[in-house]
Amino acid sequence: MSDDNEYAIENTDAGASLEIPCEAGAIKKGGYMNIKGRPCKVLSISVSKTGKHGHAKCNFETVDIFNGKKIMDMVPSTHGTTVPIVNKTEWEIANIDDEDFLSLFDEGGEQKDDVKLPKYPDDLAKKITEAWNDGENTVMVTVQAAMNMEEIVDFKIVTD
Fold it and tell me: Which domain holds residue 134?
């Protein structure tokens, strides 16, 4: 081989998957599933009997974990669907700016500046802002992440 032939080697990040394939019949109440590209929490499941086309159908009543909208879906129990990988992490509020972005720190000192006050539920952002403006205690928020989306879903006040 001569030195004239150079090979271009490209590196790619394997990365973590955003979702896991799953059979619809294996999804349980209280679990998660994707419906129309949105991560949802399963509120209830009803299963119909096997019909003339050969599949029992699962009727899912779910709620979108980021905006609270109810979504219904029907999937044959033996067909595939996907389950989102949902992570929750605790962060301490360092600042809230004029555009409602929060500066957050975790226990390891890592900083996050790209999370806004939540829009759902309606009063959560107001409660977080009031607790932060009080200034006497540490305010911790729970950030839920799934499908490349992040949202604050809860908060707590830690007394010193």
Answer: 87-158
